[in-house]
Amino acid sequence: MCGAPKQTEQLPPGIDLARETVLIGRVLVGDQPVGGAFVRLLDRTGEFTAEVVSSATGDFRFFAGPGSWTLRALSRAGTGETLLTAASPGVHRAEVFVN
After folding, report:
1. H helices then E strands: how many in the chain?
2. Which helix (H) or strand (E) holds 67?
3. CA dist., res. 87 & res. 31, Å (int)
4. CA-CA distances (angstroms) from residue 4 to 60, 87, 88, 99?
5. Alpha-carbon gap, residue 61 to 97, rounded angstroms
6. Are strands 90-97 and 21-29 parallel, antiparallel or unpaired?
7. pTM passes above 0.90
8. Radius of gyration of the chain from Cα atoms?
9. For 93, how many CA atoms within 13 A lie in the half-sphere containing its CB?
10. Quick check: 96 and 58 in contact, CB under 8 A?
11. Are 81 and 73 in contact (CB under 8 A)?
12. Percent with pLDDT over 90 in the chain
């Protein structure tokens, strides 16, 4: 089993958004969520950093540092990626469309 926590948009208690950088998003085909997608977090050089499995509602979440990130989703519905720049701590949102 994956050791990542359940993927929801709701943050765990005690998260200090003044200090933490959180990347939150959804995997979608059109406007439909894609559950069970492998979502990879790649750093600015394209190096693999982390991976989680999207929830049934397509949600995913990473705790990262400020910077430029690539979010890549691989699923039965297809693959897709998006770039996300988190210039400071806080919540940063992105959608990854697959086809």
Report:
1. 0, 8
2. strand 67-75
3. 27
4. 10, 25, 24, 25
5. 16
6. parallel
7. no
8. 13
9. 6
10. no
11. yes
12. 84
Which contacts qualify for 60-64: CB closer than 8 Å, 24 or more apart? 60/7, 60/24, 60/25, 60/26, 60/27, 61/5, 61/7, 61/8, 61/9, 61/11, 61/22, 61/23, 61/24, 61/25, 62/22, 62/23, 63/20, 63/21, 63/22, 63/23, 64/21, 64/22, 64/23
The CATH code for residues 21-89 is 2.60.40.10
The pair of structure tokens assigned to 58 is 């397509």
**Residues 12, 5: Cα–Cα separation, whole Å:** 10
Q: Which two tokens stand for residue 45?
A: 């050089």
Tens digit of each residue's pLDDT (9 = 90 or more) over 9-55:
678 778 889 999 999 999 999 999 999 999 999 999 999 999 999 99
